[in-house]
Amino acid sequence: MEQSQLLSAIKTRMPEKRYQHTLGVMKTAVILAERFGEDVKRAETAAILHDIAKYEDEAKMEKLIREYQLDYRVLGWGSELLHGPIGALYAEKEFGIKDKDILHAIHYHTTGRAGMSPLEKIIFIADMIEPSRKFEGVERLRKKAEKDLNKAMSACIRHSLQFLIDTKQPIFPLSLACYNDLMNGEN
Ligand code: DGI
Ligand code: FE
Ligand code: FE
Ligand code: FE
């Protein structure tokens, strides 16, 4: 599917604000892919589809996790932890995406995981630093993303976990595995 077709397909499935976020992730992911020598087209596709399931019904997503025997660990964690895996499922089933790296980038965009590919890192980072993100510290993350993909990814997952701790939320095992993996690599 062409970029314009993908964009009009997702536009009807989310509020305008989320669509603008998606456009921001797309532009940022393209810049990061160019900067770090990754495939621009694949970054663009993954970015456009990354939040496709953001507004899907939670019970329906849990049902799909069981039906397709996806990662059962997300059950009971709520819709935020479901929209990545289900987004990847929709990308495959509804949009015919077969590229595993694109599907993984969508699947793990919320939590990260150990052993992320450069494309997965690009989508995770772009999701966090796209122009409409306004939180304190985002400028520092944007600066890191100008220089080093791994250091930027490390800073982003640390920011994520810090936020979860500060707001007294539980940390999903993959998020922690992502952090541990990057800290072992001394980023
Ligand atoms: O979909 P977006 O809003 O663009 O961003 P996202 O998919 O990266 O994150 C959505 C939410 O998921 C965000 O509010 C924080 C939450 N989240 C990320 N990692 C974890 C988490 N929530 C819990 N409980 N545990 C996690 O490890
Ligand atoms: Fe998301
Ligand atoms: Fe994110
Ligand atoms: Fe997002």
Automatic annotation (TrEMBL):
The Swiss-Prot or TrEMBL record annotates one GO molecular function as: metal ion binding
Q: Which SMART domains match?
A: HDc
SUPFAM superfamilies linked: HD-domain/PDEase-like
- The enzyme's E.C. designation: 3.6.1.41
- On whether Iron is a keyword of this UniProt record, the answer is yes
| Organism domain of life | Bacteria
Reaction catalysed by this enzyme:
P(1),P(4)-bis(5'-adenosyl) tetraphosphate + H2O = 2 ADP + 2 H(+)
Protein name (database record): bis(5'-nucleosyl)-tetraphosphatase (symmetrical)
Q: Which organism is it from?
A: Lysinibacillus alkalisoli
